[in-house]
Amino acid sequence: MAExxxxxxxxxxDIPFGSLVLFFVKASxxxxxxxxxxxxxxxxxxxxxxxxxxxxxxxxxxx
Length: 63
Fold this sequence. Notes:
Elements: H1 17-53
């Protein structure tokens, strides 16, 4: 007979404030290059779709 998996309940996490601030600073700095890469990928996808359907770059803004 297989053993039943044990369950764990997490009630408290003790993280020093300085470590938490450092983590959030690192995470916010990591977002910058990720946002740049995502914006380039979205621009490329937009350019490809616009090229396929023959939409000019500023045509949608002139309406």
